[in-house]
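Supplementary Text 2. Reproducibility record for the structural model of the 210-residue chain.

All settings were left at their defaults, and a single model was retained for analysis rather than an ensemble. We include the record here because the model underlies the residue-level annotations in Supplementary Table 4.
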Amino acid sequence: HRIEASPDEVCDYYNVTFLPECLSIPERAGIDDRLLEPFYSATPTDPIVLCDAEYDRAAALCRSIAHEVEQGDPFSPAIAVHLFHALLLLVARNSDDSGLRTDARVRSALRLIAERFDEPLPSRDLARAVGVSPSRLAQLFRSHTAATIRQTINRRRLTEAKRLLATTDEPITTILHESGFSDVSYFNRVFRADTGLTPREYRRRAVPHE
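Retained model, structure tokens:
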């Protein structure tokens, strides 16, 4: 985000929220998915600062995405997704966290976590899937993401749990299982550590009351 407005001017603020599956770009697009690595990582990164010219391009893409969402015709979803991919690539190009420097095995593991976070994901299974030992994968994760495998999985699961708490009225026990957790007390503990709130408190704050 970037805000530039005089006191007497209207300020347009664009917030683009997306689901992980939006990061999937068809192979026929000819885009190396390593370029999108800043968005696969589950660990916080420093803000990506755009120069004025790139900022203007990003703002124009945001306006176009908003227009397509409001348009609502049969072509709008596909056009909005293509514009969104252009926005991602523009931001990724200006990121210091280039996926071209990230180990391919870590990228593969991150994609598996993004796709299968709601399933049991033992480290040994992830390691086997990417062709290394569990201890080696743990080392690679710490080196390339500054997080453990378990922390990375939990962050993805917590993101889904928070989404479901804010957008559905499903019971919390159902949500924790749909998010990939299996133990209620463990879920409550990691949720509070992440948000400072219990799941019930988070839902009350996230859902507007009339």
